[in-house]
Amino acid sequence: MTPQTWVEEATEEELIEHILNRYHDTHRDQLPEMIRLAQRVERVHSGHPDCPTGLSAHLEAMQAELENHMAKEEQILFPMIVRGISGMARGPISVMRSEHDEHAAALARLDELTNQLQLPEGACNTWRRLYEEIGQFRQDLKDHIDTENNVLFARIDGLSA
């Protein structure tokens, strides 16, 4: 069974558990390290024309927004879905979808700040690691949003199986 097939065939409870373990826990691990690396790159390379100035502040803002978003899912939306109160979950889902659009805009800003993750010639190991971490985070967040919007929320909205 492919991962996509598993996601499509999982129960809502299994899907929520997957989202919590694979995405929520992962983002909580990723962001502090990316912020630390970004602060270091900005401090050491502030005079470099390609320095991603403002990146650490943007990552901190993303962390706060994501933490707020994930807390709403964990404390309100996911328990409603697990308890089978899907009709009442449609309101919170519309809020989550709107916030997902905001996360996508934050990812676009991340691309701007990092020049689409293009490293300057001779970038140090910290800068390289930072962009590698951001690349993984970007993909994880996109997959996270896709799984919620197009699988879990679509089921609740009656848009899929």
From TrEMBL:
<dbReference type="InterPro" id="IPR012312">
    <property type="entry name" value="Hemerythrin-like"/>
</dbReference>
<keyword id="KW-0479">Metal-binding</keyword>
<keyword id="KW-0963">Cytoplasm</keyword>
<keyword id="KW-0408">Iron</keyword>
<dbReference type="GO" id="GO:0046872">
    <property type="term" value="F:metal ion binding"/>
</dbReference>
<dbReference type="Pfam" id="PF01814">
    <property type="entry name" value="Hemerythrin"/>
</dbReference>
<feature type="domain" description="Hemerythrin-like">
    <location>
        <begin position="17"/>
        <end position="155"/>
    </location>
</feature>
<dbReference type="InterPro" id="IPR019903">
    <property type="entry name" value="RIC_family"/>
</dbReference>
<protein>
    <submittedName>
        <fullName>Regulator of cell morphogenesis and NO signaling</fullName>
    </submittedName>
</protein>
<dbReference type="GO" id="GO:0005737">
    <property type="term" value="C:cytoplasm"/>
</dbReference>
